[in-house]
Amino acid sequence: MADRLQYSGKVYLYSSGMPQDMVETSKQKLAEYGVNVQDIVVIEVPEGVPEGCIMVTVWPHYLSVAKVKRVRGGSIYAPQLFNIQL
């Protein structure tokens, strides 16, 4: 397993329309990487995400982990840090 995910505050899990069972699997996988399940905020659209936080996007076979650098006019600039295979 990779290193623990370094974060402070909340981790935003962008479900991107995935079914609830995939979201639950994603939460479990993030817990394996050291994220407290109570720190995970599931979002349906990438809005209201603060700068500096970790945002994880759920895809069918992996999680894309990114750090939000900038939020402007409804757009989020969040360079990808790494992927977690599901």
Structural summary, described in words:
The chain is α/β, with parallel strands linked by helices and 86 residues long. The chain is globular and about 30 Å long. It starts with 10 loop residues before the first strand and ends with a strand. It contains 1 helix and 7 strands.
Descriptors:
5-stranded mixed sheet; globular; 15% helix; alpha/beta; 86 residues
Brief sketch in words of this structure:
By secondary structure, this protein is an alpha/beta fold.
Write the layout of secondary structure elements.
Elements (H helix, E strand, L loop, with lengths): L10 E4 L5 H13 L7 E4 L10 E5 L3 E6 L2 E3 L2 E3 L2 E6 L1
What sort of overall outline do the alpha carbons produce when their principal axes are compared?
A: globular
Low-confidence stretches: none
Largest sheet: 5 strands, mixed
Distance between the termini: 12 Å
Structural class, from helix and strand content? alpha/beta
Give the mean pLDDT. 92
Question: What is the N-to-C succession of helices and strands?
Answer: EHEEEEEE
- Neighbour order of strands in the largest sheet: 2-1-3-4-7
- Provide the helix percentage: 10-25%
Per DSSP, the total helix count is: 1
Tell me the Rg in angstroms. Answer: 12 Å
The assembly state of the depicted protein chains is: single chain
- SS elements, strand count: 7
Q: Which strand-content bin applies to the residues?
A: 35-45%
